[in-house]
Each structure stands twice: as C-alpha cells, then as structure tokens.
Amino acid sequence: LYQPLLVLDKNLRVKTANKAFYKTFNVNEQETEGVLIYDLGNRQWNIPELRTLLEEILPQKKQITDFEVTHNFLSIGERVILLSALELTREKKEEKLILLSIEDVTEKVLARKKIEESEERFQAAVAAVEGIVWTNNPKGEMEGEQLGWSSLTGQSYEAYQGFGWANAVHPDDAQPTIDAWNEAVSDRKNFVFEHRVKLKNGNWGHFSVKAIPILNADGLIREWVGVHTDISKQKQAEDLLKASEFRYHEMVYSSPSSIAIFKGEDMIIEIANDAVLESWGKGKDIIGKSLFEVIPETVDQGFDRILLNVYNTGEPFYAYETPITLVRNGKPQLMHYTFVYQAQRNINSVIEGVAVLANEVTPQVEAKNKLKASEAFNRTVLNSSPDCVKILDAEGRLQFMNDNGICVMEIDDFSKVKNNYWWDLWEQKNQPMIKDAITKALSGERVQFQSRSNTAKGTPKWWDVIVAPILIDGETEKVQRIISVSRDITDFKDAMLQVEESELLYRQIFNFSPVAIWEKDDDALYQQIELLKANGIKNFREYLDKNPAEIIRLVSFVKLKSVNDESVHLFEAESKEEILTGFHRLFTAESIPVIKEGIIGVAEGEKRLTITSVLKSFKGKRLDILFGFDFRVGNSINESLVTLTDLTAAKKAEKSLKEADEHLRMATQTSGI
Fold first, then answer.
1. 237 near 230, Cβ under 8 Å?
2. Is the pTM of this model over 0.70?
3. Which whole number is the average pLDDT over 415-428?
C-alpha cells in the first residue's frame, strides 16, 4: 500500500506500521513498534486532534473516515492529513486493535486554496469594473445564456452562440478581434483589445475588452470570463483633443504672420512657423535651442528683458513697427516688426513660456521714412499702414480712412460714411467707450483698448485700437484732429480662444481622470524652507532625520488648491471640500516618509518624484498609494501636481501570491521533488 498505515493496540501503542509510514515520516521499526503513538518521533504525533479522534470519537463510532488534521511535523514540516480509523474487534476483548490510515492531502488543499484565491481575486476584479461580463467555454466559444451581452447588443440567444457575437462587432474590427482572440485562447494568455460594438439602439460604441482564463485544480481551462467596458466618452474626448490640437497646428503653421513660442526663462524655441523662420533668415535646426543663442543680437538690443518681463509678470507686450537689427546671411540688417508678446500658460494657469505674433513691417516703415516731410501725416504714409487708420475732427466725425482700413472694414464707398460720427460704426453698447476715448484724446491723452465690432458688412472682428491727438508744431493750445489706428487682431484672438478651449479640455480631463490628482500650493512651505536655508540649513534630508517633528510642522503649511472627482471616490470623502480642508486626516504613521520626501523635493528643487506609501480614507480604510510628484518651484510659482494611484488591490494580490509560492516551495522541498 502507498498510503501510510498504523496498527495500534488497545493502549494506543504501535503494533506494526507499513513501509509507506516509515518512508513518509522518516522513522524505522525499532523506534516505532511498541511506542505509544503520541510519543512517536520525539512526540511529534502528540496532536490534540488525534487524541480527540482516538480517545473520544472512535470509542463512540467504531469507525472514522477522513478526519482532517493540520500539523507541523518536525521531520517534514506542516502537512494537511486525513485520518481514518477502524476499531478491529477480536475474540478476546483485550486484543482489540485499531487500524489507522493516514492520507497526505497537503497538495490538494494548497491547490484548492489557490483556486479559491484566484476566484476571489477575479470576483473582486469584476465587481470593481463597470462593464458587461460574459463567459466563453474552454475553446473560446460563447455558449449558454449571456444576459449582459444580449442587453448590450440586442442579439438573441441563438445569434451570439459560438462566434456569432462577432456579427455585433464593427465590420472593420470583427476579423482582427477574432484573430487576436484565437491567439489568446491558443496561448492560454490574458486577452486585451479595443473594438466597436453595435448597440441595441443601433449606434456604435467604443469598448475596451479584457478576458482571462479560469483554471481547474488540474490546471486545465474551465472557462473564459471577459468584460466589455464602454470607453465611448473617452474616445470622444480624445477625438476632440486631437481636433483642437489639429486646428491649433493649422492656425500656427498656415498663418502668413510670424508665430513662435518660447519655453522657459531661456526662451527655448518650441514652435516657429515658416513665416518667422524666413523673417529671421534661419532654418528649422534652431528648434529646441535658445532664442538668445541663435539670435544673440536680441540680447544686445534689450528684447531679452522684455521677454522675461512678460514671462515673469504675465503682462502682454505690444510693439508697433519696432526696429531691430538682425544678422541675415552674415550681414546686419535693420528690420521693423509689429508684434505682441503674450504669456503662455499651462492647464494650471502656470506661465510656461511666451508666444510672439508678429508681422514684419520693414517695407512699410521704410516707405514712411522716405515719404515723411513737414506734415505730421501724409496720405501716402497712412495708406501704407496695414491697419485701419482714421482721422477724426474735434467732434469725432470721420474725415479720412486709409485704403487698408476701407478694405478691412469692408466699406465699399468711404464717401457714404465720411462726416458720420465714428462711434456710429460701433455697436450701441460700445459707443460710450468710443466717446470717452475721443474726449481723452481731445485733452491730450493717448488711449488704447481692445474690443469687438462688426465691419460694415457684418463680419465680426476683434480690434486693438489706439486713439491719440494729432499735435502739430505751433498748435499746442487746442487739439483739432484725432488719429485712430485699429489693428485687426481677430486671428490672434481666435488663436487665444483655441488655446483656452484646449486648456478647458485639459481641465475636463483632469476632473474625469480615473486616477486621483491633487493640485498642491507649496508657497507657504517654500517660504518656510527659504527661512531654514537663510539660517544655514543645507542638507534637508539630514535635518529632517534629526528633527522629525519638523516634518509635521512643515507639512502644516501645505494647502490643496483642487482635487478631482476620483480623489473623492478613492478617499471616501463626502465632497472635494472635505479633502481640501482635511487632507491631513488621510495621513498615518506610515505616511511620514512620503511627506518627508515631498518636503525635500520642494527644498532641493526636484522636478519629479515617485514613491509608494500608505494613507487611509476618511472612513479609516487602509490604502496603498503610489505618489507621483511634479514640482513647479521658483519664479514666484510654488506648487506641485500630485497623482495618487491606488495599489491596495495589487498589494493584496501580491501578498497572496507570495504566500502561495512559499507554500508551494515548502511542499516541493518536503516531498523531495
């Protein structure tokens, strides 16, 4: 017999044992026969459950089958055994014997536990996913009733059996899906895919598909279980973002105006369209380099100070026909530009760079200089301007409009509007602003504003308007004429609107992200760190290790600016406000290291930091979290973007897998395999 057997006398001493017993428990006949069973192998059989079986249960029932006992044997480690006992009655009562059989079921129990744990993990995963759950047989064919699939697609029971479900998949996606599915079934691997499915209402939806094989105890596939998750809204958001970026790209690179975007204090050239490259006399190889490096003459002429002021303050800078000497083809050349420097902000409204929208007006300026004479303005000079230039009398009536102005204002015959009040060309709500600008110009002031107004034919446009008095030598007592220069900035405004729409889209993505995100205000913390630095603290890691109480003090200066919806869900909060005002309640003693690293990241000017730690929800639930810090420190902007990825389920699964592996390793060692 391969199963260990013992024969005991009425006093529970071993009369005999088979070879399987000796081999399994590493003992021999001399140290076994005649010995009280509880004293076998240095009393390793002194098991409370065994005593109960032999001394209490067996005398009552005479026969016991598959009595399970878990015990740690000195020679072979922890085992799960099934004990079966049978009382053998002889003619003489004093010769009563007990037959005790021992079956080692450790491997079976471990296998059963693994299957149960796998089932539990799968059920937890299904419960955590919003989607349609379905099953396939081991061959990868859909069979049986699939209520979720039927409710999603409207297919009948007969229609979706086997591979009939593919008829509900978009024709362009059906065969690739089947090919990938057959490969996963053949290789017994997890299945991950995306495709379009025709819904019950006739519309097409985008779905993420995931499926895993469920194994029997013998390792064979029992069935496949999958989940269809609707990602249609996500796809729509991605398409909108791509469209927005495409429009932005087309606007920049197809514009006849010179457009460039510089990043950071070094003004790294990130974007430069063909018009600006041609104007600078440079090639595309300058992309990614500092403006001050490739055009050093900008520094000599003070444009670096203007750019940095826009970058640091956010205030735009407008320039009209500004001269600059550029080195083109190895020779200095005087150029003139009408341009605007505009601060570029990211989704968090943090300034990241400066955009320039410019028109080279060198020919116009040169023409003006040649034609300028004794008069303050010359009609030829005015007509050379690309803007809409108007001359008003002291009453605010139109006396002159240059040709470009007539064109851009879409006026067919200027004579029909001449001597009309200028404000009559504007919408009624803007007329008080125009009258006020004229009044100030008559008193000698120069007024500038931006506003929207339709052309004579109703085309909406944005204008940058300058209103100023015309001062002529010898006429200082009273202003007789006023000049108004209206620059069409519609393209620029539309570009800014596109950027704002893109930023709004980014904000929506932030709010609906499946990962918890915090926007953290580090300004007060940064001020405290600067005070410590002023007091001689250089190594903040060493300082915090020696003064752990400082960690708690410093983190009290941190404030949250905003959190997304997933943060409320993850931390079981009543609202975003509860997190913003009480996020310190989420920390535990195990959170101290990540708090410390976050403080050090701000102090030492780190850009990014990733670290795992433990938080708790507002309801006390332990959470394993992967923190991702993106620091933005300096230049009056001190804040961080923190992503918090929930690793709790993964940590539990990893722990269960390690325990199962350890049990398997011990079983393998003790069985001699």
1. no
2. no
3. 90
